Amino acid sequence: MKAIIVGCGRVGARLAMTLHVEGHDVTIVDKDRMAFERLSGAYGGKKRVGIGFDRKILVESGIETADAFASLTNGDNTNIISAIIAKHIFHVSRVVTRIKDPERAQVYRRIGIPTISPTIWGSDKVREMFLYSGLTSHYTFGSGEIELVAIEVKQGLAGRKVADLVAPAEIVVVALTRAGSSSIPPPETVFEPGDIVHIAASASAKSRLEAMVH
Amino acid sequence: MHVFIVGAGKMGTFLAADLRARGHTVSVMERRAETAALATKELGFHVAIGDGTELATLRGSPMRQADAVVAATGEDEDNLVVCLLAKTEFGVKRTIARVNHPKNEWLFTQVLGVDMCLSQSHHIARLVEDELDSLSPAP
To answer: What is the span of the domain harbouring residue A206?
Structure first.
């Protein structure tokens, strides 16, 4: 994959190094040459000094044939402008941007720019760790609307059925691990103490799920 | 007509005074408090302090009622975001943006919600060319 990353901060630098190590063709762009010092010696991809919406810089970075583009600078406005250009002018198939202002992040998502908002994600995560310490999130889908959680079956849940947990459009039991081997359990399966249950749940259903399993 | 101007630097302030003198309803927003205070003094009406690229701020601003929005800040990316939000969130009929760096002029299109752009550098260059043309004899 050919990827262009604009913004060599902590996230940009880490992403660039990870993709490079995985064998992808990476170009990282930052307006400040000093920012490239965040890249370790292991980074062998390209570096360019410039701004993320400079046509010349983008073309020289190979945007016309790029598969992926991420704008991760400190400026929300710079990020969104770069992302819209990449998507609508250069037609890069995968474009992602980071927007700190949660409200703007939603607007941009609506106009078709995949947007990650560390503000929303971070505050939701802390809230979750405060409130639902019993449910560990293993994976989040999309912007965190759906989460994959794992729970160990204790008294509260033992003896109840998979069907008791399921709520249409909100909670699904994805897998059950019993004595080290996992399966997709049919609805009539009865939970036993020590089972590990993997559940996909919507964020809005988590407090209900919490109440059900304890 | 109601015109909402974002950015009360020299250009925004001049434009606000000019449009007002021509009988339009003008409101202005500026992010920097000191600049806003200066502009308020010069214009003789209140210039709101606020970030015109922030949705929450714009919701409580006159952008809702504006027939036209002028993005006149000193940052091209900010001007583009003002126009983008004006179009996508507020359905403003006409968006006009100031181009600060001539290198960025290619971005000021409807893809980013800009109906019309004003590039001082290009405008001056054209005037100078015209002036030179009028000096040299026709080939």
So the answer is: 122-213
